[in-house]
Prior knowledge:
Elements: E1 2-7, E2 11-18, E3 21-29, H1 36-49, E4 59-64, H2 67-81, E5 85-87, E6 97-98, H3 108-120, E7 125-130, E8 133-139, E9 144-152, H4 154-164, H5 184-211, E10 216-220, H6 224-227, E11 236-237, H7 241-253
Parallel strand pairs: 1-4, 4-5, 6-9, 7-10, 10-11
Antiparallel strand pairs: 1-2, 2-3, 7-8, 8-9
Amino acid sequence: MILALDAGNTNIVLGGLEGEETLFLERLAADPRQTAAEYAALLKSLLELHGLEAGSVEGAVISSVVPPLDRVLAQAVRLLCGKESLVVGPEMETGLRIATDDPDELGADLIAAAAAALEKYPLPQILLDLGTATTLSVLDREGVFRGVVICPGVKVSFGALSAAAAQLPELPFGEPGKVIGTNSPECMQSGILYGHAAMLDGLIDRIEEELGERCVRVATGGLSGRIVPYCRREILMDEDLVMDGLRILYEKNSG
Length: 255
């Protein structure tokens, strides 16, 4: 079994992978203030929760968009099972040709998702990842990673609206029953949910216009299931995209 850790700005998704099978998926809070020992204890507890032992871990792969967590998580894995971790970056073997101005700026989660999508879906592709940020990655017909669109995520937008507008309430993100709201919570929920869905539809149109052809569109990320059903463009859902990518990258780089 290998451990796959995808550290985002809010959560760390932890997967136990055995070949192409996912033994378990869990989420931890992404907190750079946590020590390696604290994360090692959490990892040990989660393994035991699923009836697994640290000795069953043969290796680990980490993707992170929070640089301080790279070292902490790698050290946590080392404390847990004595194994070194592969850390995803553009310098490793990915199978991708990255055509951005500075490949080092590309988020590790985007690299992992693209590596998986390259094997799982036809080209060209638009990969939508809906988390703390909303991103749309573009792979052209030759499999070249052309670039990314980055937008504020759904919950970030919702929180910013509540914080900046004195007359609008703070409330949990929810789904409105209609587009035209008749009270403040409903109006906000409609604007964020339908507005985000319409933004994705519009960005897909503009990306495809720029490429000159229709793309396969694939969505992943914790909030994709809340937004994609309201989009009018056809978008496939793949919750395992990043985990599959981490498995693929581990196999390519573990020797």
